[in-house]
Predict the structure.
Amino acid sequence: MNGADISSPTTIIGQELNVATAGAAFFAETLRAQAVPVTEVHWQPAMSGTDADLERVLGDPRRPLANSLAVRRMLDCSAYLVDVLPAGPTLGLGPCDFLHSGPPISWDRATGPLRGALIGAAMLEGQARFPADARALFSNGAGACLDSCHHHHAVGPMAGVVTSSMWMFAVEDATTGRRCYCSLNEGLGKVLRYGAYSPEVLDRLRWMAAVLGPTLQRAVRAHGPLSINAILAQMLHMGDEAHNRNRSGTLMLLRDLLPDLIECGATSSDVADVVKFIGGNDHFFLNLAMPACKLALDAARNIPGSTMVVAMARNGTDFGIQVSGTGDNWYTGPSLVPEGLYLPGYGPDDANPDIGDSAVTETYGLGGFAMAAAPAIAQLVGGSPADAIASTLRMYEITLAEHPVLTVPVLGFRGVPCGIDVTKIVRTGLLPQINTGIAGRTAGTGQVGAGRVTPPSSIFRSALAALAVSAEAARPRPGPGPEDPLRSRQGSAVMARNARPAVPDLRVQPPGSRVGSRRGDDV
């Protein structure tokens, strides 16, 4: 061994060993016990029962170009705040129309936070005087109409309930003119979106409709289009991840709009109340990040063969996803209870399964996908700065691209992972990491904590199965093979023997014409 000490496992081949292991941790542990440097590679088999579907989808010739197109359309979108509008005429809502977060759901399947928000919304709109009246309104099945925000080019955090009197941010793609919408953020604690409906909750909503919405409308129209993408890019360099932490984004928004708020013609007391409300609500910008993300993801919809996820949303009962290559179909499974930290007096037994459209931020590459840019968020949701970095690094394994504008300083300004790929999730077993608030399971409770959660793996298997059906349907079918010359000659001879004597056609044909020709003969 050229003088090497063969008693040392690190020099048994004459040089230092560097070993990579995959699978069971036992291999790495054994090598470390012998002082061998080891790099552990995360690996596990594909999700069970998916081999055939994976083969079909990965073999779909449309997939590479389809995913490339989906990513390009998503990244080409430039989101601008252009207006603040009442939801009724903007979304076509009547007094008995109630939008909610997540995939569609009926009252009888709704959990506490969504029921509480619907109860409060019904009283807000004058459709019920007391909570019992609201319950009757929704339970009889004929008094109110429920639908998903996503079906109306909108998103809503937590319960996400939107009614006709609420005001909405309007975010527009500068290139195409498409718009998406989101309600104005109420703040934290006992608020409608967490299922609370006490008098102070409803009074705040009435003030938002009477003062906050109209005042912001004047300021935004006076300011002109305001780039949401530019604020998002700066937020990542200032410790926000645009889901559970939006402090710098909120303050940058207020900085940009403040001169126009002062000069918009509203009373000084109204302007002061608006500034105080926005400045004291660190989450205010979340309701602009969400429609900006949806606007970009909607640009990537309906591309045949694409395996990119374009929506992740929860209604407190179901967790649903939509995929570019399968249209508007929802693939749903049970929403899980987040793991995290709780407010004093609350614990896991008080928590509702995950709820809200705010996972649209993760779908775009923010939130849990950008935790490395927001180390302080780890303390809020439970974990360490190292956990935050590791979370972001894992998400690169299940995405198609890195964002060219939204970058993470601690990773050398690497772009956030974006474009979630169904096939990569199924192949690796890694699930999207989502930062989220935790709502109390009992209607009227409000927020009880914050934490992290993942979707159920079953929904990605379901989406893969649908993509496999699409790939099979689009697969080119083999046509008739090349004609056998011998068989052709033999067939012609038989036909000639059996044919009746031909009668000559003595008619004069125009030049270039063919006897007995049909419209399809020349095709």
Summary: The longest strand covers residues 399-408. The domain at 64-472 is CATH 3.90.1700.10 (v583 fold).
